[in-house]
UniProtKB/TrEMBL annotation:
Family per similarity comment: Belongs to the LacAB/RpiB family.
Pfam families: LacAB_rpiB
Keyword set includes Isomerase: yes
Uppermost EC category: isomerase
Segments traversing the membrane: none
Record's protein name: Ribose 5-phosphate isomerase B
Domain of life (superkingdom): Bacteria
Chain coiled-coil ranges: none
Keyword annotations: Isomerase
KW Isomerase (keyword) present: yes
EC number(s) per entry: 5.3.1.6
GO molecular function, one term: ribose-5-phosphate isomerase activity
Length: 149
């Protein structure tokens, strides 16, 4: 499993905790920035990670900003991306099982590091259930196609 990571300055500290966690678990990853606490714009990092995940160069992405909201909204603009903002472990596994989410978004100002790492594990360990959910995922893709300029 290969994970693409990204954050803005508001998510940098939590991203560093996630990096340590993935290293401990031996999970391969690449950090697409930001790398410093200087103020930056979350859409830049959302796009870098989303493009890599959509191209299937990475199985999943994890994006962090202050709230997780801006970075998830931006990532979801890339066709093929289903980024889910999660603040609890139930949503984290349910979004893999039902929505086949390919990016997990987290808010550093919303969840503490302990819960955030449990959310990461819940997301990465869950499997898409297919079946009736496939039809719904396909409908999301149809909406994407319908409004594509
Ligand atoms: C940055 O100050 C903050 O706006 C950003 O990290 C995020 O919370 C936006 O949704």
């Amino acid at each position: 499993m290969k994970i693409a990571l990204g954050s803005d300055h508001g998510g940098l500290r939590l991203k560093k905790e996630i990096i340590k966690h993935l290293e401990k678990k031996g999970i391969e990853f690449k950090d697409f920035g930001t790398y410093s606490e200087d103020s930056c714009d979350y859409p830049d990092f959302a796009e870098k990670v989303a493009v890599e995940v959509a191209a299937k160069n990475f199985e999943f992405g994890i994006l962090v900003c202050g709230t997780g909201i801006g970075i998830s909204i931006a990532a979801n603009k890339v066709p093929g991306i289903r980024a889910a903002l999660c603040s609890d472990t139930f949503s984290a596994h349910a979004t893999r099982e039902h929505n086949d989410a390919n990016i997990l978004a987290l808010g550093e100002r919303i969840v503490g590091p302990g819960l955030a790492l449990d959310i990461v594990d819940a997301f990465l360990n869950a499997k898409f259930e297919g079946d009736r959910h496939t039809k719904r995922i396909n409908k999301i893709s149809e909406i994407e196609k319908k409004y594509k300029k």
